[in-house]
Amino acid sequence: MGVNLMNDNLTTLSRNLRKQQTDAERLLWNKLRAKQINNVKFRRQQPIGKYIVDFVSFEKKIIIEVDGGQHMDNSKDRGRDEWLEKEGFKVLRFWNNEILLNMEGALEVIRERCI
Description:
4-stranded mixed beta sheet; 4 strands
């Protein structure tokens, strides 16, 4: 697959993912958008390399992933995180229930990384 075709496919997929956010992703986005955390800009469903990440701050090099049970002990996620970390990003992973049941705890972790 050519690079432009792959980029076009990722862009289309990321647009579709923005429209199909989970409840946890939607709630977290409401707290991240419009520079509400330490005046840091986040983007959602953003292509980086061959991956699409849930949320990213390019300024702080932070990626936030919100995962359901299908990601439990997932070797693909580990390989993906390793690649993203080699690119200079810090990956923060939260379970859906962490966001739904303890939003303030998750936001505190994110705020600490955004200093």
